[in-house]
Amino acid sequence: METRVAVIGGGYAGIAAAFSLSESGIPVTLFESSKTLGGRARGLDCNGTRIDNGQHILLGCYRETLRLIEKTCRLPEPFFRMPLELAVDSFRLRSFPLPPPFDLLFGLLVSKGISLSEKLGAIGFMAKASSLELQADISVEKLLECHEQDSRITNFLWKPLCIAALNTPIEKASARVFLAVLKDGLNGEGSDILIPRVDLSSLFPAGAAEIIRKNGGEIQISSPVRSLRKSAGGFEVSTDSAGRHFSHVILAVAPQHIGRLAKDLREIELPDFSYQPICTIYSQYPETIYLPHKMTGFSHGLAQWLIDRGEGLIAAVISSEGKHLALSQSELASKIHEEIRGVVPGLPPPFWQKVIIEKRATFSCTVDVDRPEQKTALPGLYLAGDYTAGKYPATLEAAVLSGIKCADQIRLSL
After folding, report:
1. pTM of the model
2. Cβ atoms of residues 190 and 151 within 8 Å
3. Among 161, 191, 221, residue at a domain's last position
């Protein structure tokens, strides 16, 4: 049978896989159920403004994601890029233009809002983190206790970083994964914060899809796959319009959807994941309104981060489980406006607000979480997604890396 690959799912993992295959001249067809590419990182229109279905930031250590964006995005400056700067309550940390690790170690030394002993304790832990290897996984909370990180520095620094990266509370979060994030993310330009200037669909999927088509591939949007079955020499992928045969298939959908798609493929066994939500509240104010920092964090209240999107648009992010889920959307939007007022004196009422809740935004990155390999027990069938095996938690980089790995394994099998 002629080599032809189906990629089911048009999020960052699926697009990365399809793009990598198309660069190698391998025929690929991508199926996406939505009319918009990007999956859980896609753009949408709201009151004449282009926003995302959840606020994302990127880090300088997202090397593969940034490499693909550079290849596919035609915009000259798609990011607002800045050195790591954390502003959480009274705590202020900013990296300095020094060689790593001194950029952040010196930044901690001159940080504001904590005592000298807390600074030295945090510096000591950060210095150890770059080479620390755990024989057995433990929670982030336990890791911090073992290294004598007190409650203030934990609330101001380590807890916000853990929630932002792993989307899992520190008492449950995997210390092994957290250390992997620290090693790569707190290393020179790896710690840079990149806030997209465009929506997430325009940032990578749209440009990649155009190149995939130019390379002879197909992008089938608004085309949900109804079933996936084994057939002679490959697989049959069935949509509402037709059934098509492929030699290889990459399943790049969320794990909770795989059972329905591949119910006839008993070789696929996935762990029983638990999930964490992410809530994003967009508030549109006059263009003259801006935050004192591009990113402002809180150790109390509902919002964990406020992100200035420019032109008066402010995104509030609430990661992981919490009391906010018991509120109605109107109550939540109102409370977020009050929290923004605490940062921006004289803030007028917003023109509009939009609440977006992804109840299964990420898998819970818990201690010893079981993540499946990309290559399945069924020859020719692969899994792509941020939940699959890898050192990073559920991030855009983890999704992209999984897609690239699937493409690499298919190339090697030919």
Report:
1. 0.94
2. no
3. 191
